[in-house]
């Protein structure tokens, strides 16, 4: 396994960006005795206080997948919520349209097929994972840990700095009808893409401030015909719980997840 730090110029954002990639050890095909290609890929998204280094620094994800044929791509959206902002910074386009091509140019053995591309994240990244999966249909599986999946019943004044949120999402009064709403994206999915919905997974702790938002979003997604696995347990909005739940996320993906040897 290799951990690669890639520095590239984003034509879409007009700035230099950094992205981290965990690249698996070469796996031999027993029939042909050659390295496998078409390696499945998980895009792993950070939360509001993080960047492209956070998952590596906080989760031990490199240890969890060291025996698994899976590449992990860890980009940064800064504080832009994986969205095309109202001030012209197109973070959504940079991650969804540009980054996969950048990664494939460096690492052509990584799969570009929808069925072998997955996306997951925590908190803001959980929102980003579901949003990107529903808005692009380029990912067959999406997972959210403590995701900000719904803004229902939240008054604008409760969000804090309105200038910041308006810079990201525009008119907050019209958020539910915009391309930034997971519920709106889910409503429009069949008309836009047809019946091949991504499979979804969500977890949130009972003591997490986003617990009710997850309940609302999951019920809505089920009503709209999405196949979603929803798990809850005691837990706060903290890394201790997200690290524990990454096992569940990796089990959820259509890969052969080879767990590390454990006594219990």
Automatic annotation (TrEMBL):
It holds the Pfam family Esterase. InterPro entries: AB_hydrolase_fold, Esterase-like, Mycobacterial_A85_antigen. SUPFAM superfamilies: alpha/beta-Hydrolases. This is Esterase family protein. It comes from Pseudolactococcus carnosus. The lineage of its organism: Bacteria, Bacillati, Bacillota, Bacilli, Lactobacillales.
